[in-house]
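Explain the record.
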Amino acid sequence: MDNIAGQKTSLSIVTNISVVLLVVLWLIPTVGLLVSSFRDREQISETGWWASMFPVEQAFRIQPEPTGVTRDGDLYLFSGNVFDTGSGKVSGFGITGRDPGIAKPGETYGRLKLVVSEADGTTDEENFETSWPADGAPAAPETDDKNRPVTGFHIDRALTVAANGDFTWMQDSDISRAPTLYVTAAAPPDFGLGNYEQILTSDNMDRAFINTLTVTIPATIIPILIAAFAAYALAWMDFRGRGFLIAMVVGLLVVPLQLALVPLLQLHNKVGIGQSFLGIWLAHTGFGLPLAIYLLRNYMVGLPRDIIESAKVDGATDFQVFTKIVLPLSFPALASFAIFQFLWTWNDLLVAKVFLPSNSESWVMTVKIADDLLGSRGGDWGILAAAAFISIAVPLFVFFAMQKYLVRGLLAGSVK
């Protein structure tokens, strides 16, 4: 009953579900990347993009100026509020960056100087961090972590923080400079255009954009011109070794380009091209030719034979047949490969790093973003996400302008 007219077959239902799943799988990370591009760097490191609309528990490093310092016994102390606006709620605090939320609001956390006895009768001092009630006194352990007996202690530094942000800092010496406090508190969602502004206003980004166009446009046009002639010859011209050449083209499709990077660069250096725009144009041409010839040849083989034979009967040469008949009819395949080649060269990083000079005047956008904005570790996810959307603006325009030819070009030669 699956073949009744007007009813969907079970295969079509499975196909539709598969397409929907694929779209969702691609859409989820894209939406996450878009949301992350507007988020603050600190909030990205704390929570995922799916929690971006909720308050984020963040650690803050504060250095309040010591004003109104007073003395209480052996301790110097001053008070203040960790929030500049005077409003907020502290969820934890500490005196070191390795554990900024170790203590709870309302208690005191500090570092004690323990006096420990050595086996030979001498004494030594050991640091010991602990918490105690704000209205109480600290308690020292009987032994330190090396099992040496503790004979005494004094407070080196301590911090008391209330839930509303009021704090009291104390230490055993005069407070001559601002101490460093650490608190954890819920911060509201922070969205902005700071990541995009940092990328667009960075030095030489306009130059990198022009360099990218300088690389991409010739590296797209040159392989199309060469591949079109080669594809016509392999499709409609009869000569010895044609089948072997077709097999070679298919075989080159599966060869990783990474294998050819170093030998090709050495060849460029020997012939005097070196690291230059001409060198990267030729490199992209060589890497793109197998796919270009394969797509165009399959499309040209499917063109009506009667048209080409009629043109030859009327006295047209192979060059005239190619330029007047085959080339105009092959525009969908040409456009299809142009989309792939443009996207590949525009988003390329590896080939640009190898075949272009390392100075900033020759950087393309991908190299500029990777080397200058992200650094060697690449840990700034906000910059990375924003850079991804900035860099795909031009490829998206090219794709949507030529998408109607994409499917027709890809299906070239698949049916008769």
User: Anything to note?
Assistant: The longest strand covers residues 150-161. The radius of gyration is 34 Å.
